[in-house]
Design goal:
The protein is about 15% helix and about 50% strand. It is mainly beta.
Length: about 150
């Protein structure tokens, strides 16, 4: 599986960027959840928000990506003007009945003309924070609503 950013749908809104999920393997993948984890955001006003934010809007019915197929997802968080961000796309999927989780980390920043997301290696501390946020979202979704 691969995940790659496309051009933002709205020029000045980095979180309008569609991310293309592609099944680059030999077997079909049942996508169980696709989520976005934001570790840090820096705004134009110089405010840095950190501590992790999990976007739960991508939790939808599972779908199957056949070999060579792709789909897109958008990590909608804020309409604020930001200058830097660290985003991890977290995908839970099943293959041959076994559930897996993959992580795709991107650092974003504004160039002179546009926003750009660049893929980065995933580190273990960030993986743990994303797992905790993901597990919290899953646990919260199991609780009866009040």
């Amino acid at each position: 599986m691969s995940v790659s950013p496309e051009q933002p749908l709205e020029h000045d809104r980095p979180f309008s960027t569609p991310f293309r999920l592609a099944n680059t393997g030999y077997f079909s993948l049942d996508i169980v959840q696709e989520n976005c984890y934001i570790d840090t955001i820096k705004t134009e006003a110089g405010v840095t928000v950190s501590g992790g934010i999990m976007n739960t809007t991508q939790m939808r019915a599972s779908k199957t990506l056949e070999r060579g197929q792709s789909d897109t997802m958008v990590c909608r968080f804020t309409n604020s003007l930001i200058t830097r961000a660290n985003l991890t796309v977290v995908i839970d999927y099943k293959s041959w009945g076994i559930q897996h989780r993959m992580y795709f980390r991107f650092d974003g920043g504004r160039t002179s003309e546009q926003w750009e997301w660049l893929e980065q290696p995933m580190d273990e501390d960030l993986r743990k924070r994303a797992d905790k946020a993901m597990d919290d979202v899953i646990e919260q979704s199991k609780r009866p609503s009040k």
